[in-house]
Specification:
This protein has 209 residues and is mainly α. It is built from seven helices and six strands, in the order ααααααββαββββ.
């Protein structure tokens, strides 16, 4: 294990390394030798030796890291309000200077609603514990008519396909490249497995080629 990755290792991995380190110390290995063998920094190994001497077997008992859904920091009502905002609103609808829900936007929303400032790493841990992940959203126009789209897909397009088959013709779908005034390339937090949807106006301007 690389020394710089130790702090992100699981408790299981850390306990295993601690046991291996103490076992090697018992066999007479020096700090540098154990550091080279296990990839653990020498200062960390010195601390481990000291802690093992004072704690004994309890040195190998580690508390679970992380947080459980933020329950220690927010009430159930507050948690519900935060999750509802992430699910049903976009930052600009809450008069926040963001387009999509990233960690800074969530941080700003929590400050505005509850007057509590959490660090960005904390915000990231909250979002992960709530089952949310950053995803590229799909965009839908306010003016889009779902009934008309379904009508075209289920009735109109099948007719077009049958006609093309009779006439031995091919169907082509045209596409174009361009830039739009409403384009956003970022990601927004949403429930894992559920792509976020950004509601926007269909009135826009752009250049297509």
């Amino acid at each position: 294990m690389k020394k710089e990755t130790l702090r992100t290792a699981s408790n299981e991995t850390i306990v295993k390394l601690r046991r291996l380190a103490i076992d090697q110390f018992r066999k007479g290995a020096k700090i540098k030798e154990v550091s080279d063998n296990l990839g653990v920094g020498q200062s960390t190994l010195k601390l481990w030796k000291k802690l093992y001497k004072s704690k004994g077997s309890k040195f190998f008992e580690l508390k679970k890291r992380g947080m459980k859904g933020g329950s220690k920091d927010f009430t159930l009502v507050q948690l519900r309000q935060i999750k509802n905002c992430l699910r049903d609103k976009l930052p600009d609808q809450l008069k926040l200077p963001f387009v999509l829900w990233d960690r800074k936007a969530v941080q700003a929303m929590i400050i505005k609603k509850f007057g509590v400032k959490k660090s960005l790493p904390q915000i990231g841990r909250y979002l992960k514990s709530w089952g949310l992940s950053p995803q590229k959203p799909i965009y839908k126009a306010y003016e889009q008519n779902p009934e008309a789209v379904e009508q075209w897909l289920k009735k109109d397009f099948p007719k077009i396909k049958r006609k093309a088959k009779r006439e031995k013709a091919e169907i082509f779908f045209g596409d174009e490249a361009g830039i739009r005034s409403d384009h956003h390339s970022g990601k927004s937090y949403s429930k894992k497995g559920k792509t976020p949807v950004v509601k926007k106006t269909g009135q826009r301007f752009g250049l297509n080629t």
